[in-house]
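Risk mitigation, structural track. In case the binding assays with flavin-adenine dinucleotide fail to produce interpretable data, a predicted complex structure has been prepared as a fallback.
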Amino acid sequence: MTSTPDLIVVGSGIIGLATAFLAHEQGRTVTVIDSADRPVGSSIQNFGHACFTGQADIIQDVAAVARDGWRRAAAAAGFWAAESGTWIPATTDAEMQVLREFADHRGADQVTLVDAAGVAAGIGHPGLAAVGGAHLPWDMRVNPREAAPVLADWLAREGVAFVWNTQVTGVADGVVETVRGDFRATDVVVCPGYRLMGLFPELAERHELRVCTLVMTLIDRPDRIPAELGMLTGTSLARYDGFAAMPGAGALREELAHREPELVDCIANLMVAGIPGGLLVGDSHAYSLSPEPFIDEEIGQLLLNRATGLLGIDRPVVRQRWLGQYADSPATNLILDRPDSRTTVAVVASGIGMTLSFGVADLALTGGSVSGFRPAGDRRVTCT
Ligand SMILES: Cc1cc2nc3c(=O)[nH]c(=O)nc-3n(C[C@H](O)[C@H](O)[C@H](O)COP(=O)(O)OP(=O)(O)OC[C@H]3O[C@@H](n4cnc5c(N)ncnc54)[C@H](O)[C@@H]3O)c2cc1C
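Fallback model:
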């Protein structure tokens, strides 16, 4: 490296790239360093579902910044970003009750309650057995296999320097130590995702950081189902902090424990998202410091059966299965720490890093913080 950039970003996942994007917008010189040769972490393994509305009230301002960032980045770099919202079919009264309460709480701008026919049309399954549902118009969809790689390519063309295949071994006071020697910058933002333990072990331990693994499947999409589909279900209502804070969430959890014990056992957030190549179906959650690499076929089948049941797909054609990984903590949803005056560590410790990415990047660059952004409900239970 010949000159010292204003900013080094460690990690080319969506948090690192969003940070590089905002810094580049501000006219700062940026270098991104990653141990891989392209984005391959959590940021390409997910649904690409930017679920702003379902997040906790406390993080809604950050979500709004994130939404603006996604729109600007998509327009600039030219990746697909659909402002198609989220559909939530309610198959029982308990699910509908949570949706009604959430609509009252957030208002008509954010939550549109729909009847059974409306939600059936929204997800492209006219025969859906629902009692009603909701549409969250604010939410967005991106293709996770496209967004980070295209953004990285665009940033590189714009003059952001990328140093690939270079493991970072330490960061302090504007010096980034790597296996290829030291790099220097005025400021450093460290975005290593679930690999935080390898760089700041004490910080990771203080925040009880662990790896969450999720069983995921890609299936063919029948033409009748919208390519930009984003669909959450009852298990999502019991899990996402915004919905889970509603008074009816307790009754819904009890109902799910009796009605869908297998989904509850694998800590499912049953959801489906469309991408040009098909439908992404997931997911289960298992937590460990050092996860098993194996995909449990029973869990994959369970999620597939329930999702295709809701969508009326009789014979799903499976194209891919994978075990996604993301950083998780039972104690906080966001690690935003400043180990020294020139270093900021930014890790989203929950499955919402795509959603919040540009908002978290803004906090990392402006020195902002969010206190009390803790997980609601069952993520505080430690599971294997
Ligand atoms: C199956 C699944 C579904 C999900 N669904 C959603 C969803 O629908 N909506 C949503 O908002 N979120 C979702 N998430 C969560 C989201 O994907 C993550 O929160 C987000 O991608 C984290 O981004 P990141 O940049 O922190 O991590 P990553 O994308 O993992 O990037 C971290 C980068 O840092 C690099 N790195 C790490 N350590 C070093 C080092 N020492 N030296 C050099 N480089 C290093 C890695 O190589 C990697 O490229 C999901 C996650 C999964 C796995």
